[in-house]
Amino acid sequence: MNKEELVTVIWSKLDGITKDEVRTFLTAMLDSIGHCLANGNNIKLKDFGKFEISERKAHMVIHPKTKERCPVPKTISVKFKPSGWIKESLNENRK
Predict the structure, then answer these.
(1) In the beta sheet, which residues pair with residue 78?
(2) How far apart are CA 79 and CA 64, in angstroms?
(3) How far apart are alpha carbons 34 and 37 in whole angstroms?
(4) Closest-CA residue to 61 (of 71, 47, 50)
(5) Which pTM was predicted?
(6) What tens digit of pLDDT does each residue of 51-60 get?
(7) Per-residue DSSP letters for 13-49?
(8) Is the dihedral of CA 9, 29, 25, 47 positive or negative?
(9) What is the C-alpha separation between 80 and 41, in angstroms, rounded?
(10) What are the pLDDT digits (tens) for 24-43?
(11) 3-state DSSP call for residue 78?
(12) Which residues 6+ apart lie within 8 Å of 75 measured at CB?
């Protein structure tokens, strides 16, 4: 599902609000989440999940062809941990 499809799904569940208003709200919400994470803050949304900043330390790897040791720099990424009901519904849908 892409952003526009999500806007349509949300809009279909609300009365008295335009698609443009839903799009504006969703854009503002996603921008806010992105800015919070970029500033080093984790985000916890009750009954949805957590966006956590994850740091992987710098380390050395061995190039498979040359057998040369190569440094890999520290990386920072975001991990999402879904809430319990999302995990349960994912596992129910796999059965």
Answers:
(1) 53
(2) 28
(3) 5
(4) 71
(5) 0.76
(6) 999 999 999 9
(7) T-SS--HHHHHHHHHHHHHHHHHHHHTT--EEETTTE
(8) positive
(9) 13
(10) 999 999 999 999 999 999 99
(11) strand
(12) 55, 56
